[in-house]
Amino acid sequence: MSFMRLLTCWLLLFFVGEIVHAQTPVERLEKEKFFLALDKPGMVKRIRYYVGDEIAFYMGGDRWNAEILGIKNDTIIVTEAGKVPIKQIEAVVVPSRSWFLHQGAFVFPVAGVGYFLMDTLNPRNYENGNDRITAENITISSSLVGAGILCRVFRKKKYKINKRHLLKTIEVL
């Protein structure tokens, strides 16, 4: 048996095995009685958290990043904090799913610094007695770095739990 056939068989078995064992949210709900929901009244938008999902929240002024181990009627059980009453959670941090924001937060500052260095160190710019650092150089470089900082700021949305954003457990029938 050739190496390529053997490799193809192993990859096929691996991917088929992963597809068979992967759980959909519906299968997870059949095992659990509750899921955690972040709602905005009057809107269709609902962010759902199931057992095994990562959640980032503020409680007592501290930020917690943990995996949900269990969801009960008025509490959640997480890896870092143990049992957490839902009433004590002050805010929930939801990461953006935008590819552009995640990539731009890294690429724009690198491009801005790279452009600044290339334009400043380019020997043709100061051969004729011109300044090494020009206003155009600073404007373009700082714009790129600023765009990266804006992407970093908008990568995560913090929802304060109040009358406008409700965190609640919902029982699955």
Essential attributes:
single chain, 173 residues, alpha+beta, 6-stranded antiparallel β-sheet, 5 helices, elongated
Taking strands numbered 1, 2, ... along the chain, how are they ordered across the largest sheet?
A: 6-5-4-3-7-8
Oligomer: single chain
Unreliable runs = none
Q: Structural class of the secondary elements?
A: alpha+beta
Instruction: Summarize the biggest pleated sheet.
Output: 6 strands, antiparallel
Q: What is the overall shape?
A: elongated
Radius of gyration: 25 Å
Distance between the termini: 52 Å
Helix percent band: 40-55%
Let me know the number of strands: 9
N-to-C SSE series? HHEEEEEEEHHHEE
What percent strand? 25-35%
Task: Give an account of the 3D structure.
The structure is a single chain. With 173 residues, this protein is α+β, with helices and mostly antiparallel strands. It has two domains: 32-93 and 158-171, no CATH class; 99-153. It contains five helices and nine strands. It has helices at 3-21, 25-31, 99-121, 123-127, 135-153; strands spanning 34-39, 46-49, 54-59, 62-71, 75-78, 82-85, 91-95, 156-160, 166-171. Strands 6-5-4-3-7-8 form a six-stranded antiparallel beta sheet, with no helix packed on it. A three-stranded antiparallel beta sheet has the order 2-1-9, with no helix packed on it. β1 (34-39) and β2 form a beta hairpin. The longest helix is centred in the middle third of the chain and has 23 residues, at 99-121. It is elongated. The mean pLDDT is 81.
